Amino acid sequence: MKKMYNILVTNDDGYEAKGLHELVKSLKSIEGVKVTVVAPANEKSACGHSITLVRPLRFISVDDDFYKLDDGTPSDCVYLSLSTMFEHEKPDLLVSGINRGSNMGEDITYSGTAAGAMEGVLHEIPSIAISQLMDFTDPSGDFTLASKTIKELVMKIKDGSFPLPKREFLNINIPHGKKTAQLKVTYAGYRHYANDSHMHSNPRGEEYHWLGLHPLDFSPREGQEGMSDYEATLAGYISITPIMLDLSAYKSMKGLESWLDTTE
To answer: Which fold would CATH assign to domain 5-188+225-254?
Structure first.
């Protein structure tokens, strides 16, 4: 009997998220694929690549091969599933998403969706993070193009090979409002940030704060050829960006050595 192609799925929007269920439906339609879902029990957006060290975690069965991790992060979901459900044989592929909202530029460092893929490649599992740009006045969102795109890419990987070396993952962003779109290989854009928060008071007069959401504001990186993820999605392309976990600033090493020499 031909071996099943095992895909581990996680996300950061939580186990009930529409994007997750659309993703699972799309992947299950591929012949010869088995999908295992381990997702956070609660929304963990912008949790980054965090794991839980201060309390125990518990899997809760939701359906066949579908689990929520009680108060776990996407990284927890991947880490624990590999050490329990996949201790004898790793998944063939990990897919994190479909995220509700973009994950572009330096926002990748905040992203729980991207972190799920990061955790996957740390364990030498080919991994993909996929996100859907949203009009947040429509809370449900349309994941049709995202589902079609991830299915086509997974089939290409399954029948061929993963296009990246170790400790690199694919970060995909789907433009809003498109029924069809071409793929464009991009780099992570230069994100502009503000500092926005909103203070309120509860009935007892105690102050609390909501962190604000910043509008998407990017610019090209100086001297960088090609198109950024933001430029691509703005132009109606599907952005596909290779992301590496090595954060070393190699171009700055010589300058740092010179600076150290002048300060001795």
So the answer is: Stationary-phase Survival Protein Sure Homolog; Chain: A, (3.40.1210)
Please tell me the distance from the alpha carbon of residue 251 to that of residue 186, in angstroms, as a whole number.
Answer: 21
* pLDDT tens string 213-233: 667 788 888 888 999 999 999
Nearest-angstrom CA–CA distance, 51 and 49: 7
* Helical segments of 48-166, H only: 74-84, 112-122, 144-159
Helices 144-159 and 18-28, packing angle to 10 deg: 40
Long-range contacts of 161-166 (CB under 8 A, 24+ apart): 162/93, 162/126, 163/242, 164/126, 164/242, 166/121, 166/124
pTM exceeds cut of 0.90: yes
Residue where the block lists tokens 């659309």: 22
Residue 79: C-alpha distances to residues 7, 57, 86, 216 (Å) = 15, 11, 10, 31
**Tokens encoding 39:** 């997702």
Residues 46-66: tens digit of each pLDDT: 999 999 999 999 999 999 999
Domain segments of the chain as ranges? 5-188+225-254
Pairing verdict, β 127-132 and 93-100? parallel
**Arithmetic mean of pLDDT, 191-208:** 84
